[in-house]
Write a structure and sequence with these properties.
Strand content: 25-35%
Oligomer: single chain
Helix content: 25-40%
Structural class: alpha/beta
Number of strands: 20
Strand order of the largest sheet: 1-2-3-4-5-6-8-10-12-14-15-16-17-18-19-20
Distance between the termini: 49 Å
Radius of gyration: 27 Å
Number of helices: 18
Largest sheet: 16 strands, mixed
Length: 447
């Protein structure tokens, strides 16, 4: 590395994902040591093995504490613009009961600790990430947001995880465009402070944020939003005129309001909702819906002629509810579909409804070009009959992708695929295997 141009060597040092590697480079050579003080990015991570060593009975008393190492690194890196400090994911969300840890050596959103280093570099920071140790941070409230907002006037990206945050003293941060709060207890039950102090946000991630009662997002510049609701608030309201992508995962809100006229990509996971208010989605192109009662939700979405790509799934254990949504009705709601993906629960429910009364409706089925479905193959002949009936209706269909559950016997799966190809040689068939919680495995490409 000493033969590399200094600018390139500095870029490499700035991309190191662990501060321990940076420390090793300082020992390796004088050139690297001199360059290391010019880095603009610092990542400091406590691993599970490091934590366990620090708690062992024969721990070396001369080992420098995690926080002290970090503060020294910050003081010796005067050009820092991006800082990340945290505990390894496998350690971060362990409960207090699991580790019985009432120390504060890994309480990273502790304001007394942050005051030792943040005011020194805060003015030039553009990105800050703090991933706390839940067993030390969950039971004491932090004023970290107030300190960050007073010290980091140029901050663009902020990420805080595994902690309890107060919004007392929080100042407006007009430069902040990206905010992630993950597994956080937030003392802002309606999100009024978030809306007021982070009004310039373009990207927002609220993952497992607790403490909310009637949260309302009202952000004019927001473009991408991922919201995983950890509790059951009475209502969820999103007012975002420039929002393009929304991923919303919730349980049973009494009221859901989406005033997002620019939305083009919606991923909605919801058990059920009493009242669903939406303005017309004039730009919606891609919709993914996972629900106990998709029939109810699609009815509330009304007729949507702009949707081209649709994914629907239902928990497989709720067959009685799933059967309320027929494939024909789905196409009647979305008459201009080009691509349809059906999860195993949705397919099973529609197949059961088909067996009870055939396939009705489905005016829009002539427009679809490709179908992907996840199959259990409980009754191969029944599944084939339903699939062939669908193919009869989808006269412009060109591609079919079948994912068969991994527990289905391989000879049964092969026989099923062979019958599909033999009966519909004009369709490009692709098949693979699926299992809950893992990535799909494709066995063949389209042929």
């Amino acid at each position: 590395m000493e033969d590399l141009p200094p600018s390139l060597a500095l870029e490499i040092l700035s991309r190191l994902t662990d501060s321990a590697d940076l420390a090793r480079c300082r020992v390796a050579s004088k050139t690297l040591k001199d360059l290391s003080y010019e880095v603009r990015t610092l990542n400091h991570l406590c691993t599970l093995s490091q934590y366990l060593k620090s708690r062992s009975s024969d721990a070396d008393p001369l080992i420098m504490p995690f926080k002290t190492i970090f503060k020294n690194l910050v003081r010796n890196s005067p050009r820092l613009e991006c800082v990340s400090i945290g505990v390894e994911k496998s350690l971060g969300r362990r409960s207090f009961v699991e580790v019985e840890d009432d120390y504060d050596d890994l309480y990273l959103s502790d304001v007394s600790f942050m005051k030792d280093w943040l005011p020194v570099i805060g003015g030039r920071l553009r990105s800050l990430s703090i991933s706390d140790f839940w067993s030390q941070s969950s039971w004491r409230r932090s004023d970290a947001l107030a300190l960050i907002s007073s010290c980091c006037s140029s901050l663009v990206e902020l990420e805080l995880k595994n902690t309890w945050l107060s919004v007392d003293g929080l100042n407006i941060m007009p430069q902040l465009t990206n905010l992630t709060l993950e597994f956080v207890r937030l003392d802002d039950e309606d999100l009024n402070k978030v809306n007021f102090c982070f009004m310039g946000l373009q990207v927002l991630n609220l993952i497992g944020v607790g403490g909310l009662k009637e949260p309302k997002i009202e952000l004019l510049h927001l473009k991408r939003f991922h919201w995983t609701v950890s509790n059951a608030p009475l209502s969820l309201i999103i007012l975002a005129p420039n929002l393009v992508e929304l991923k919303l995962e919730c349980i049973k809100p009494k009221l859901l309001v989406l005033d997002t006229p620019s939305l083009s990509d919606l991923h909605l996971t919801i058990e059920e909702v009493n009242e669903f208010k939406v303005k017309e989605f004039g730009c919606l192109k891609c919709l993914k819906l996972v629900s106990l009662n998709p029939f109810s939700v699609t009815g509330m979405l009304r007729l949507s002629r702009t949707v081209k790509m649709l994914t629907v799934d239902i928990p497989r254990s709720i067959d009685s509810v799933a059967s309320k949504l027929s494939l024909g009705t789905l196409f009647d709601c979305f008459p201009n579909l080009r691509s349809l993906k059906l999860g195993s629960g949705a397919w099973s429910g529609m197949e059961a409804l088909f067996c009870a009364g055939g396939l009705e409706g489905g005016i829009g089925m002539k427009s679809v070009k490709e179908i992907t479905t996840y199959l259990m193959l409980y009754e191969m002949d029944t599944t084939l009959a339903f699939l062939f009936c669908v193919l009869d209706r989808c006269t412009n269909l060109s591609d079919v992708s079948l994912l068969i559950h991994c527990e289905v016997d391989s000879s049964t799966a092969s026989k099923f695929i062979s019958k599909c190809r033999a009966n519909w040689p004009g369709v490009r068939w692709r098949w693979g295997m699926w299992e809950e919680g893992t990535e799909d495995i494709w066995v063949t490409d389209a042929c």
